[in-house]
Specification:
7 strands; alpha/beta; single chain; 7-stranded mixed β-sheet
């Protein structure tokens, strides 16, 4: 749940990364991280690097990671994980909507629990599509809009409050549709609810290829 904006307040920059580091650091989330990072190789862009919770799960086939994230607290929290990893990590910008990487340059893009907070998520997905080489893949794990109308109605009701509390986080974004609209072809998609309130836990976990 990382926010991408040109200017960040203290809460978004210093507090939210610490909340996210704890909230998304549990065992169930770690299992999802292991699955979604499987198959990564070569050069990878990680949009929403945060506190580096994915770093321990990078396969040895990954040659380097370009990290995109606006929060300075996230970088501090990530420092120990990055230092302990055999995979080199370099920061490549602050804004997922304008990725500072050449077109067609990377083999994979990884994004986890981040699409919910990017203000212009459509622009960010177009950027992910742009930086991938032909045939490159987007690996994603995100929460979003439930297909259950009752749950979706509550997501719509609670999203304005959620956005204020969690730095712009939307509960109701249709992740699969957004990925396809950016020009990707989804090759694997698993949907499920995380333990806890269904309003917050409907998950999209998958892989999409650059057409």
């Amino acid at each position: 749940m990382k926010r991408f904006t040109g200017a960040m307040g203290f809460y978004q920059d210093q507090v939210v990364p610490r909340i996210t580091n704890v909230a998304l650091g549990g065992r169930e989330i770690a299992r999802i991280r292991r699955r979604v990072t499987a198959g990564l190789a070569g050069e990878v862009v990680k949009v929403g690097f945060g506190s580096g919770l994915n770093v321990p799960h990078y396969p040895r086939e990954v040659k380097g990671v370009r990290a995109v994230d606006p929060a300075t607290a996230g970088r501090k929290l990530a420092a120990r994980r990055v230092a302990a990893s055999p995979v080199p990590v370099e920061y490549a910008g602050l804004d997922g909507q304008v990725v500072a990487v050449e077109s067609g340059r990377v083999d994979h893009v990884l994004i986890t629990w981040t699409m919910c907070t990017i203000p212009d998520v459509e622009a960010a997905l177009r950027e992910m599509h742009r930086v991938l080489r032909p045939g490159g893949q987007l690996h994603f794990a995100e929460h979003g809009r439930s297909p259950d109308p009752r749950v979706a109605r509550w997501q719509d009701r609670l999203t304005p409050l959620q956005r204020r509390i969690y730095a712009g986080c939307h509960l109701n974004r249709p992740i699969d549709r957004l990925v396809r609209q950016a020009g990707f072809r989804i090759t694997r998609l698993d949907n499920f609810y995380l333990p806890g309130p269904r309003t917050f836990g409907y998950t999209f976990e998958g892989v999409a290829s650059k057409a």
